[in-house]
Write a structure and sequence with these properties.
By secondary structure, the chain is an alpha/beta fold. Helix content is 42%, strand content 12%. The strands form two sheets. Strands 1-9-6-2-5-3-4 form a seven-stranded mixed beta sheet, sandwiched between helices. The chain has a two-stranded antiparallel sheet with strand order 7-8. Helix 1 packs across helix 3. The longest helix has 25 residues.
Length: 284
């Protein structure tokens, strides 16, 4: 019985996707590369059919709620690539919107794989859903295997430091980890810097109740104007920079890697500054 209900829900969501997508977008979604094994999933649990059903509410958010505009998405090359982005908004809607943009606006359309925090895998139901839509725990080995398969990987080097920062820190990039640079050097992967504008204002955090977060095992427990991190209908603008290529050894000293990481960070910060300067308002 439960299986029948699940099938009906998937069918309903797939029909919703078909209603929301125009002819070109339907063609793009149908052209997405499918996993190769006989079960329709890859070794990490990614199921494209499941993802195309789950994309319906995200497509609605992309077109009608956040009204996403993309700039420079043609810079994303074919083959393996690391998309390195700023992170904000309390809930990872920025990652979801980048993912939809890559399916609907990139040429060719692609499914991106996001690196999620390890604690996400401990959440019931959520962990299964994330695996089905192609998101995986952000370990170096997982990322390395996907890059060797010519996948596009979305990385948020700020981690929870970025997504959970308080309102006074908006659009101020937090410390970047070095792991993505080690992997880029090891696998000879280009890096495309990505800047998201709009997510900072979707759920501004006024304070972080760390004792409550610790009680529930969360990285933070933000208090927003609405009381909960429910996203407001801010206008999203996503900027994709030109690919950056780096040379060197993945086992170089941290100081050497940090110089390269700062180049990526500076590119993202520059796009953020330019985008904020050009936009006329938060909600339009």
């Amino acid at each position: 019985m439960l299986e029948n209900v699940t099938d009906r829900v998937k069918k309903g969501l797939r029909e919703w996707t078909d209603r929301l997508a125009n002819t070109e977008q339907k063609h793009r979604l149908q052209g997405l590369t499918r996993p190769g094994n006989e079960y329709g999933v890859d070794p990490f649990g990614f199921d494209l059919d499941y993802s195309l059903s789950a994309v319906a509410p995200l497509l609605w958010l992309y077109r009608n709620y956040f009204r996403v505009e993309t700039y420079g998405i043609e810079h994303v090359p074919a083959g393996r690539v690391l998309l390195v982005s700023n992170h904000s908004g309390q809930l990872p809607m920025d990652g979801a919107m980048i993912g939809v943009a890559m399916m609907l606006d990139a040429s060719p359309p692609r499914v991106i794989r996001s690196m999620v925090e390890k604690w996400v895998s401990s959440l019931p139901y959520v962990s299964t859903f994330m695996a089905r839509v192609g998101q995986i725990v952000g370990t170096p080995e997982n990322c390395r295997r996907l890059l060797e398969s010519e996948e596009a990987i979305l990385v948020f080097p700020e981690g929870t430091r970025g997504i959970n920062k308080l309102w006074p820190q908006r659009y101020q990039l937090q410390e970047f980890g070095l792991g993505f640079m080690r992997l880029a050097l090891e696998t000879n992967t280009p890096i495309v810097p990505v800047a998201v504008i709009g997510a900072e204002e979707q759920a501004p955090a006024l304070m972080d109740l760390k004792p409550v977060a610790k009680l529930f095992g969360f990285p933070s427990f933000p208090i927003t104007p609405t009381g909960l991190p429910i996203p407001l209908p801010t206008k999203y603008r996503i900027y994709f920079g030109e690919p950056l290529h780096f040379s060197g050894r993945p086992d170089d000293e941290d100081s050497e890697l940090d110089k390269k990481v700062r180049t990526v960070k500076a590119s993202i910060q520059s796009m953020l500054h330019q985008g904020l300067k050009e936009r006329q308002g938060v909600f339009w």
